[in-house]
């Protein structure tokens, strides 16, 4: 898989953040710093400034470019990272002028994802995103890309190294797409199975480092990796959550969003994000202690719209109330009396019981329990029960008959009674 060279001890780096037509936001700069350190960079200095619009050639002005060049030469800097998306020509011009590697915001986030991916699917998705990003940058100024290559065992006559690289990238991208299509098919089968079993799905979404995995672990008593760092979770995790005195839901922990998330990542992670699109409810986790709270909410909602999940019901979960003075666990209703927000601390557990009650209320269904005696010839009816209900108990008597206890949604029971005469007259316990 394509990866950047990454020294284990960290890479001496200069960070560049330019505010375009607005004041410099300290929290945006802090997030950029955390992104860089998450990738393993060792920031020497952060250079910031204001511009009305980017310079076409170097993105920054001549004065800033000289300032960056001086730092690179004097501080043994091997990498300059821009908190912006650079065009391929800007990236190439900067590398030529600064005489060191240059990385933009999209490349930085892709590098972090490459480090975090653990599952086979996650690694494929990251590689696909990296290759798509790289394919737009196969115009770097190295002379070997212009040479003609040909001859026995090499490429066809007249094909340049650059053309060969593009062709090989295209072939690899097609291979990864085919593999991911198989994974997407398997995920789709899993969703259909949960649908047949009437098990709702709740997807935990939110800005990176909002505390999604900590909340997920608290609710499901799991040990998903959760650290105070950006993109601690990349591979999605799903667990069953039993609601108090009610049914169950499938809880899905997802990758965190971030402002200006590279389009290549949204496209590559489409199969993973499909769990969010097809969820019955979204728990939108928000860092209540962040000064950029509203901005983060807007960024997450934008990505949800982009992937087609804008219409999925959503409850906001304001996390980390233990870090906010005079903040307490509570539930907030909208003008129609529906739950809109829940305040809690996933770390301390304060407010978790309130959230569980909210989930119970949202997924309140009327269930029925059936105690059924089936003859040996009623195998088809038994199969229907296994497909559409939760089996509470099953015994076979000496004559080969089944005594089955099941639990199913009342509406499912009513539908089966209309469709199947064998369901009529079954013993019913609500």
Structure description:
- It is a single chain.
- With 430 residues, this protein is α/β, with parallel strands linked by helices.
- The chain has 13 helices and 17 strands.
- The protein has a 7-stranded mixed sheet, with helices on both faces. Strands 2-1-3-4 form a 4-stranded parallel sheet, with helices on both faces.
- β10, α10 and β11 form a beta-alpha-beta unit.
- α4 packs antiparallel against α5 and α5 packs antiparallel against α6.
- The N and C termini lie far apart (56 Å).
Keywords:
single chain; 430 residues; alpha/beta; 7-stranded mixed β-sheet; elongated
What's this model, at a glance?
With 430 residues, the protein is of the alpha/beta class. The protein is built from 13 helices and 17 strands.
Given helix and strand content, the structural type is: alpha/beta
Question: Ends: how far apart?
Answer: 56 Å
Contiguous uncertain segments of 5+ residues? 1-9, 140-158, 224-234
The percent range for helix content is 25-40%
Note the overall shape. elongated
Mean pLDDT across all amino acids: 78
Order of helices and strands: EHEHEHEHHEEHEHEEHHEHEEEHEHEEHE
The total beta strand count reads: 17
Instruction: Characterize the main sheet.
Output: 7 strands, mixed
Provide the spatial order of strands within the biggest beta sheet.
8-9-7-10-11-13-12
Strand percentage lies at 15-25%
Rg of Cα set: 27 Å
Tally of helical segments: 13
């Amino acid at each position: 898989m394509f990866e950047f060279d990454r020294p284990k001890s960290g890479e001496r780096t200069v960070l560049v953040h330019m505010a375009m037509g607005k004041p410099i936001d300290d929290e945006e700069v802090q997030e950029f710093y955390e992104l860089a350190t998450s990738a393993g960079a060792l920031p020497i200095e952060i250079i910031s400034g204001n511009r009305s619009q980017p310079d076409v050639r170097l993105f920054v002005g001549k004065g800033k470019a000289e300032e960056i060049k001086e730092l690179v030469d004097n501080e043994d800097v091997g990498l300059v990272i821009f908190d912006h998306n650079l065009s391929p020509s800007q990236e190439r011009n900067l590398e030529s002028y600064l005489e060191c590697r240059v990385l933009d915001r999209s490349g930085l986030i892709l590098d972090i994802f490459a480090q975090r991916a653990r599952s086979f699917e996650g690694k494929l998705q990251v590689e696909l995103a990296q290759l798509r990003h790289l394919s737009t940058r196969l115009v770097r100024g190295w002379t070997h890309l212009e040479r003609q290559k040909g001859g026995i065992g090499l490429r066809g006559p007249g094909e340049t190294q650059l053309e060969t690289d593009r062709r090989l990238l295209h072939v690899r991208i097609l291979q990864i797409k085919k593999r991911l299509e198989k994974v997407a098919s398997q995920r789709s089968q899993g969703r259909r199975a949960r649908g047949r079993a009437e098990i709702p799905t709740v997807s935990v979404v939110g800005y990176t480092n909002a505390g999604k995995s900590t909340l997920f672990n608290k609710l499901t008593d799991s040990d998903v990796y959760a650290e105070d760092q950006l993109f601690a979770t990349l591979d999605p995790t799903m667990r069953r959550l039993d609601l108090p005195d009610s049914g169950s839901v499938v809880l899905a922990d997802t990758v965190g969003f971030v402002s200006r998330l590279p389009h290549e990542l949204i496209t590559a992670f489409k199969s993973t994000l499909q769990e969010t699109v097809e969820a019955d409810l979204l728990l939108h986790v928000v860092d209540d202690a962040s000064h950029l709270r509203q901005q983060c909410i807007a960024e997450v909602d934008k990505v949800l719209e982009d992937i087609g999940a804008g219409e999925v019901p959503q409850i906001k979960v304001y996390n980390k109330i233990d870090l906010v003075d005079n903040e307490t666990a509570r539930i907030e209703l909208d003008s129609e009396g529906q739950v809109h927000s829940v305040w809690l601390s996933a770390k301390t557990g304060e407010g978790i019981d309130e959230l569980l009650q909210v989930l119970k209320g949202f997924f309140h269904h009327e269930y029925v329990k059936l105690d059924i005696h089936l003859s040996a010839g009623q195998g088809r009816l038994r199969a229907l029960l296994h497909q559409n209900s939760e089996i509470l108990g099953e015994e076979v008597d000496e004559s080969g008959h089944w005594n089955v206890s099941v639990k199913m949604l009342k509406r499912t029971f009513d539908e089966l009674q209309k469709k199947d005469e064998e369901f009529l007259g079954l013993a019913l316990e609500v």
